[in-house]
Design a protein that fits this description.
The complex is a heterodimer of chains A (606) and B (183).
Chain A: E1 7-10, H1 11-21, E2 26-29, H2 37-45, E3 54-57, H3 61-73, E4 78-83, H4 84-89, H5 91-100, E5 106-111, H6 125-132, E6 136-137, H7 142-159, E7 163-165, H8 169-172, E8 174-178, H9 196-199, H10 203-220, E9 229-230, E10 239-244, H11 246-258, E11 265-269, H12 277-286, E12 289-293, H13 299-303, E13 310-311, H14 326-336, H15 361-372, E14 377-380, E15 396-397, H16 402-414, E16 423-428, H17 429-445, E17 451-456, H18 485-491, E18 496-500, H19 505-522, E19 525-530, E20 550-551, H20 560-564, E21 570-571, E22 580-581, H21 591-595, E23 601-602
Chain B: E1 7-14, H1 19-32, E2 37-40, E3 51-58, E4 71-76, H2 82-85, E5 89-98, E6 106-107, H3 109-115, H4 122-132, H5 146-157, H6 161-178
Helix pairs in contact in B: 1-5, 3-4, 4-6, 5-6
Chain lengths: 606, 183
């Protein structure tokens, strides 16, 4: 693994390693691509520390933020990690924590996903930092992300303010060789200094705190430790490039490729907000034209005066949508330097669409839902099961927890129509704990006539099988108290709550029909479809591992299973040809045996 | 630094084929050889059977991504990806493709993996092939040798002996197929 002390580290691992190195004592997170590997890596690296660390998955990002923030109020170095849309959930404590400030260093890692590759939006967390009025650092690589954790703690403790570290997908999910630093213990004992005027400030004192915050920001913007750096001190001329994050890495490669290193001045901004006023003044004094390359919004550009001399996203020169690819950056840099170079692009070829795994219990649940409520409105949520889209069993996906509240909205909208459509909401177990519970309580109060199917695969599957509150396992595999899903649903006041095994297709369909009848007259009915995720190695013992079914000569190749069940192990062999089952992919769930309308797929017992 | 040690390689497949493992092993081998290395990977939703693409840059680079027209080599675990990912190659670039057809750089990786009783080891068969195959001038395609990847497998999968042994035998079978091939 090591050569001269260098290790291959994913960006997320590099940040985790740096948290452990820099004496962070408390780390919380909620999983979300591209941030998910940070907390699991902290849980691995914490063994390097002599002193204890608290490392936990929280039920959602708001809870995660508040736990980590209180650790800072108690004087410890703490951190919270999430993806950019998770920061929306944590926006409430973020805005207020900025006013109140910190004691121990507090780092908020919010991972953005320009593209987007695995997110609902391309929102720029740096804009949230600007709104909250906290500094934000923008790393260009795993190596720089590793360094910036220490820098973030230094800024946080010098100015008593939360500091955001904003990596993007290309930092989080890149691997790079880097030399880890020494692991410092945290020699501090927790101490809480009561200060109600600050920690429980009433609106009257909040304006004082707001004034303090503005003063802190002004000093941070003058701090040389985070000032922009000149990438090529030798270059002169009337034009300058300004870049941050991964775009800065692409700019360095583009300058080398185009032979412009000595001809076009380039700067890297490490702290896009607050931008250093001295830097702004220098740019304006030294250059006639400035091109800003940054992801995803023009945050640096917004802070530069003299828009007539600045090109970027606001000016319309750089696209406001999508990732800044290295080829796009080559084109922008070449054009800015007056070169007629156009970097080649990949052809627009539709890739393979993602699909639920062969044997995924969600596929069986979706098939059962469509069978029980063929004319239903299907609200759904964030997770692997969003891919129920492919089965026509997902009509809406808004944000975490919205399946339930949107189901309520549809029911209220159609309530006074002669034949309101049945509404079936699907939500994963982790998403239900995250944001579904308050919504479910609301539907009980309002007696919303819908069926909620909790797709309980006993894990947070999409992001890499992190434990949920029902697992009773911690981030490092340590035993915790499990929350019972059935009791939680009952506690919300739901009066119909049953559990189904989705592999028993007929039984699940029958139960869903019963739930639909109940819901029409009585309000919410909940069906928990429970089967562990096949990718969850910790549940191997619970997986039904059977041989692949066989296809009998009765199969006339009608294609029903391929079209409506969409299992990757079912392969159409051509018109009127019997379908083929790919034994390498098939998990042996045998659900397709019940799906086939001709009874032509035959179960094989082990 | 010679031209072979500075290398940009694209690894392409679909979710579940083990594109990430191939990328990881090559990156580990680069570090062991004392080279700086950068990779970029696909995670999250696209891993669920969707198209998966990794970039591997060995030698001094600043960013993790390879531009179209700049890759020295392409390891394609799915032939269907050639249309989309072939244009990553530079004019002198090579490709090694898992296919039952006869193409330049083709390897029947699925067949070889099935014969080993390890149908999911297509990724390592293909990697073994690429490590052993030579250019028409007798040069290796990749910056590292079979032994470097064997060592990386020992380090990466050492705690899972069954997986490690399966990976090593798939790598060897691929290398045996590649040792007679000129690309």
């Amino acid at each position: 693994m090591t050569q001269a002390g260098r290790e291959l580290m994913m960006g997320n691992e590099a940040m985790a390693r740096a948290l452990v190195e820099n004496g962070c004592s408390l780390v919380t997170a909620y999983p979300g691509t591209p941030s998910s590997e940070i907390l699991a890596a902290v849980a691995r690296y914490r063994a390097l520390r002599a002193d204890p660390m608290h490392v936990q998955w929280a039920v959602n990002e708001k809870v995660a933020f508040e736990i980590a923030y209180a650790g800072s109020q108690a004087g410890l170095r703490t951190a919270v990690a999430m993806k950019q849309v998770g920061l929306n959930v944590a926006a409430d404590p973020l805005m207020s924590a900025a006013y109140m400030g910190t004691v121990g260093g507090f780092v908020v890692i919010s991972a953005d996903d320009p593209g987007p590759h695995s997110s609902q939006t391309e929102q720029d967390s740096r804009m949230m930092a600007m709104m909250a009025k906290i500094p934000v650092l923008d790393p260009d690589s795993p190596r720089q992300a590793h360094q910036m954790v220490g820098l973030a703690y230094a800024i946080s403790e010098s100015y008593r303010i939360p500091v955001m570290l904003r990596p993007t997908t290309r930092v989080c999910h890149s691997r790079q060789d880097l030399a880890p630093g020494p692991v410092l213990g945290a020699p501090r004992e927790p101490a809480f200094q009561k200060d109600p005027l600050r920690w429980a400030a009433t609106p009257k004192f909040r304006s004082t705190l707001h004034g303090e915050l503005e003063a802190k920001l002004a000093r941070i913007a003058a701090d040389p430790s985070t000032a922009p750096v000149r990438l090529n001190p030798g270059a002169a001329g009337p034009r300058a490039l300004v870049a941050s994050g991964v775009a800065a890495a692409h700019v360095r490669e583009a300058l080398a490729f185009l032979g412009l290193q000595e001809r076009l001045a380039a700067y890297q901004v490490r702290q896009p907000f607050p931008l250093h006023p001295d830097f702004i003044a220098h740019l304006m004094a030294a250059y006639d034209e400035i091109l800003v390359l940054e992801e995803t919004t023009g945050i640096i550009e917004l802070q530069l005066a003299r828009r007539d001399r600045v090109r970027g996203k606001q000016s319309g020169h750089v696209s406001r949508v999508g990732e800044l690819s290295p080829e796009t950056i080559v084109d922008h840099v070449a054009d800015f330097a007056g070169l007629s170079v156009k970097a080649p692009r990949l052809p627009a070829v539709p890739g393979r669409r993602p699909t639920l795994c062969a044997g995924c219990p969600h596929r069986a649940s979706f098939f059962a839902i469509k069978k029980a409520a063929p004319k239903g409105i299907y609200t759904s949520d964030i997770g692997c099961y969003t891919l129920g889209l492919n089965l026509g069993a997902v009509d809406t996906v808004l944000c975490m927890g919205a399946a339930i509240s949107q189901a309520a909205g549809f029911c209220h909208a159609f309530r006074h129509t002669p034949k309101p459509p049945p509404v079936v909401a699907t939500i994963g177990d982790s998403t239900f704990f995250h944001a579904g519970v308050p919504a479910l309580i609301d539907t009980v109060t309002q007696q919303v006539p819908f069926v909620l199917v909790i797709l309980d695969n006993r894990t947070t599957a999409m992001t890499g099988n992190q434990p949920t509150a029902a697992c009773g396992t911690g981030a490092g595999g340590e035993p915790l108290q499990a929350v019972d899903l059935e009791s939680l649903v009952d506690g919300c006041g739901v009066r119909f709550r049953r559990t189904a095994d989705p592999y028993d297709l007929k039984g699940t369909v029958a139960l869903l029909r019963e739930a639909l009848v109940f819901a029409r007259e009585n309000g919410p009915a909940v069906v928990i479809c429970r089967r562990p995720c096949l990718l969850d190695r910790s549940r191997r013992a619970e997986h039904l591992l059977r041989p692949a079914p066989t296809v009998s000569p009765a199969c006339d190749g009608c294609g029903f299973c391929v079209a409506h069940f969409e299992c990757p192990a079912l392969v159409a062999a051509g018109e009127k040809e019997p379908i083929r089952i790919d034994a390498a992919l098939c998990s042996g769930c045998h659900v397709c045996v019940a799906v086939c309308p001709k009874n032509a797929i035959l179960a094989v017992e082990p | 630094m010679n031209t072979r040690s500075r290398q940009q390689i694209v690894i392409s497949g679909v979710g579940g084929q083990g594109v990430l493992l191939v990328t990881r092993l090559l990156a580990e081998a680069a570090i062991a050889l004392g080279e700086p290395v950068f990779t970029s990977e696909t995670h999250g939703m696209a891993q669920r059977g969707g198209t998966v693409l990794s970039h591997l840059k060995v030698g001094g680079f600043h960013g993790p991504l390879i531009r179209p027209g700049q890759a020295d080599g392409l390891l394609a675990l799915k032939e269907e990806n050639l249309e989309a990912h072939g244009p990553f190659l530079n004019s002198g670039g090579w490709m090694v493709v898992n296919t039952s057809r006869d193409l330049p750089g083709s390897v029947k990786a699925e067949q070889i993996a099935s014969e080993l009783g390890n149908p999911r080891a297509v990724n390592l068969v293909l990697l073994g092939f690429a490590l052993a195959a030579r250019t028409s001038k007798g040069q290796p395609l990749l910056f590292c040798q079979v032994a470097d990847i064997e060592a990386a497998i020992q380090r990466t999968l050492g705690d899972r002996p069954k997986m490690r042994d399966g990976a090593l035998s798939a790598l060897a079978a691929g290398a045996a197929a590649g040792s007679r091939r000129e690309i």
